[in-house]
Amino acid sequence: xxxxxxxxxxxxxxxxxxxxEGPESVPHSHRFEVELTFRGPELNxxxxxxxxxxxxxxxxxxxxxxxxxxLNDLPEFEGDNPSVERFARVIFDRVxxxxxxxxxxxxxxxxxxxxxxxxxxxxxx
Length: 125
Description:
Protein name: 6-pyruvoyl tetrahydropterin synthase family protein
Oligomer: single chain
Helix content: 10-25%
GO molecular function, one term: lyase activity
CATH topology: Tetrahydropterin Synthase, Chain A
Cofactor: Zn(2+)
Number of domains: 1
Organism: Halorubrum rutilum
Keywords: Lyase, Metal-binding, Zinc
CATH class: Alpha Beta
Number of helices: 2
Strand content: 25-35%
Strand order of the largest sheet: 1-2-3-4
Distance between the termini: 15 Å
């Protein structure tokens, strides 16, 4: 199995909606780092798994979409707690719509909210 990983970082804000009190229930910032790991059993005719330019463009679009935003106010989080786990799933859905290389069979999205805490969502594409 081949794997190709690209990453970006940006600052965004959120607050957790299931916490009654405390610092997580008020708006606060994180320097999010997003890792996209594309996987597949074969390479394409150019001997790569995914077009890295397309993957980096998807990352740039993600950074532009979420940089300096309050996640709670965005439609993709409406009705959901904007946890780092939920954020990883939201990003997965956006990336699988944007990067469509036929050699990619799986995608793992890891979102780091600080140096010690991250969540991953991975699934077949």
